[in-house]
Amino acid sequence: MKDRYTEKFVDILLETKDPAVFAGVARILKVPLMEDEKTPKKFSDVFIEVVKNYSAAPRIRKKELLKILKDANSCKESVDNGNFTKDSAEASTDKDV
Q: How many other CB atoms sit within 10 Å of the CB of residue 42?
């Protein structure tokens, strides 16, 4: 790997269990998920393209994407564990403002 941000990104991306999070990251990095209108790309091809686009991104963008990925995974874990409530969602958004 080129840098520590890329290593961290790949580690977190591999731990991601939610396909919507992966699809969202791919979309942010402008990686198409479909070959054409009817044919989806292979996961391995999309994954490689996501990592390449992430590696080529400026450092600030890498940090932003890492934060997005970490936040998405932590929200998903909270929902899965039943710890996510309206109050915790509001507290989470208040601290980011």
A: 9
Instruction: Give the type of residue at 78.
Output: S
The answer on pLDDT for 90 being more than 70 is no
pLDDT at 79: 54
Are the C-beta atoms of 89 and 35 separated by less than 8 Å?
A: no
The tokens for 73 are 């995974």
- Secondary structure letter of residue 85 according to DSSP: -
Q: Which of 70, 22, 12 is nearest to 49 (CA)?
A: 22
Mean of pLDDT values over 8-23: 89
- For the chain, the maximum distance between any two Cα atoms, rounded to a whole number of angstroms, is 42
Task: Give the HSE-up count for residue 27: Cα atoms under 13 Å, Cβ half-sphere.
Answer: 7
Residue type, 87: D
φ, ψ (nearest 5 deg) of residue 40: -75, 150
Sign of the four-CA dihedral 77, 82, 83, 85: positive
Q: What distance in Å separates the CA atoms of residue 94 and residue 1, rounded to the nearest whole number?
A: 35
